[in-house]
Structures are given as structure tokens and as C-alpha cells.
Amino acid sequence: MSQEVRGNDAPFILDAVERAIIRVPRSSHHGLTRRPTAVKIAGRTYLDLSLLTDIDMSRLPEVVLAARLYHLAHTHQTLVTTGQCALWAHGYGSDPTLPPITVAASSTIRPIVLPAISIGTHTFAPIKVKARHVCHLPAFSDTRGLLIESLEAAQITVTRTSPNRRAAFTQLCMIGNAFTHFDNFHLKDSRRHEKFWKELLSAELTRLGNRARGRSQAQWIITHADAGCASPGEARVLYELCAADLTGMRTQVEVHTRGSRYFIDCAFPAEKVGIEFDGRAKYGDDARSIHSSLARERERQRHLEAEGWHIIRVGWHDLDHPDELVAQVRAALAARLG
């Protein structure tokens, strides 16, 4: 999984593409292809580029993805967009950032081949879409003319079916952080929103029944995921601690000292052991901002240590060796316990 998972502009792109999609009868094909702004997507589905004035052409891959989804919606009206593709459509971070088309149907549908698309100097390769046959369709809604798996159902689909539990955990934490609008300065409200978010996910998982594939993995991820993780790096740290069966840690632990208010990324409050993730983005982009940020971090560290905290600093390179990180945390906890 990439080191950053963020929201996207998919809802805006889908709105624009929906207005630019043209469905034509066979008799009109010849005349339409002479329009320089009309690009064939597949079959009788065209996209009028002249109507995409508010979209930068650097977003063409997303535009093509959206256009292909609309073509499928017109030609296979019972298909439901699921999983990572549904998360993308809802405007939440997907993995990969531009997901493959994943759909489900309650009846067996042959694989659908979508042709290559050429727009200016850009060419998009043909793809084959295989609809997953399910006895019962997931919860979905008609969103902008597309049948999209609900946000809760899409999160459950991803946590159940992901072959990488670590990546699914990190992604869910990031979705939770965005969904709850988590705010360190309003922790009580943020935690209430987090509780509501998890209740929605648990209800969706319960709806699938005890025999749903991947149910235990999804349940573990829901239980341990934390909307307080403000970055993928912080979520990865939490994952390694949870996977090692460590308990008693909390995210965004508030500490007041020397007139300052600090929030420790992840901490064991009882033992006063904190783990801080040092991501590149937090320090700025130029020498002056980096120097200033490092000075503030050193001051912050001194203030926390003066209050009796033991702080472990973690970077992306440390997460390449999670066993060493866990051992370091265990040693710090043991030292505090005497």
C-alpha cells in the first residue's frame, strides 16, 4: 500500500462524466464519430470532451474509469460496483489510488471486454471486467446513475477480501479518520463519531451472517482500527502493536506540560510510553521549514520527557522491521514496570 491514503475527487468527476456521456442509436454512429470532441468509450457509449471544461486533463485516467462505469451501467443494469472501486466512487481513498473495476451481480454474466480508448496522445488499454456472482447483492444505492455498494458495505468487502490484512487495516483507519472528521481538539466528539462509525460497520458485517468469507479478518480489523490515526504511518505503527497482541495503547493521547498542549500519536498512558511517527510530510518542503519543524520536535520531546514520558520515534524505515519495533516497545514497557 502507498504511504499516503487520502480522499479523492471521484464524486465531482462522476458528476461531470455523467453529464458528458452520450448514448446513441446505431443509426447515429456515423455522424457522431465526426464530432472531434466525442470519444468512443465502448459500444454505443460516447464521451463529449467539450463538456468536461472543469476537469484538468491530468485527471484523464479517472475520467476514463468513470466513463467505463457509466457504459457498464447502461449495458448491464444490474451490476453493482463494489470494494475498492466503490470506495473510490464514494470519494474515499482506495488501494490502489485508481482501482480496477470490480462489480458484482446476482446472476452469472460473461466477462465483459471494454476496448482501448484514445484521447489525444493518451491511450488506455482494453480491460476485461469479470462480475463476481453473489447470491445476495450487497447493500447499494443508485448514486449518480450508478449502482454503488454502500460505503459501509464497501469497507466490509475490502476488509473481508483483502489478501493483505496490514494494508486493509491501514486503509480502514484512514477512512475512519476522514469519515469521523477526527479532531484532536474535540476528542470527545471525535470518539463518539468513531463509535457510530464502528457500529455501522459491525451492523453490515452482522447482516452478512456468520458464514461470510473473511468475516474473522474483518472483525479483527474493525475491532482494532482507530480513527485517531492521522496518517498511514501512524496506522501502520498501531497495526504492528495490535498484531503483536499488545494492549493498553491509545491514539492521540493528550498531555499538558509547560503551558503547551501535545497529542502523542500512540501511547501506553499507564506506563507513560509514547510512540511518535516521523513522516516526511510533517517537516515541510524547504530547508527553513524543516529546520523549524525539527527544532519544535526537539522542544516537544524535552517537554514530554520532563513529564516522565519515554518517547520512541519511528520512521518508515523502522516499519520495514516490525519485530524490532515491537521488541523496542516491549523493552520500554518492561523497564517502566520495573
Spatial extent as radius of gyration: 24 Å
Largest sheet: 4 strands, mixed
Kindly report how far apart the N and C termini lie: 38 Å
The sequence of SSEs as H and E is: HEHEEHEHEEEEEEEEHHHHHEEEHEH
Mean pLDDT: 91
Description:
The protein has about 350 residues and is of the alpha+beta class. Helices cover about 45% and strands about 20% of the residues. It has eleven helices and 16 strands. The chain has helices at about 10-20, 30-35, 60-75, 85-90, 150-160, 165-180, 185-210, 215-225, 230-245, 285-305, 320-335; strands spanning about 20-25, 40, 45-50, 80, 105, 110-115, 115-120, 120-125, 125-130, 130-135, 140-145, 145-150, 250-255, 260-270, 275, 310-315. The strands form six sheets. Strands 13-14-15-16 form a four-stranded mixed β-sheet, with helices on both faces. Helix 1 (about 10-20) packs across helix 3 (about 60-75) and helix 5 (about 150-160) packs across helix 7. The model is unreliable at about 1-5 (pLDDT under 50).
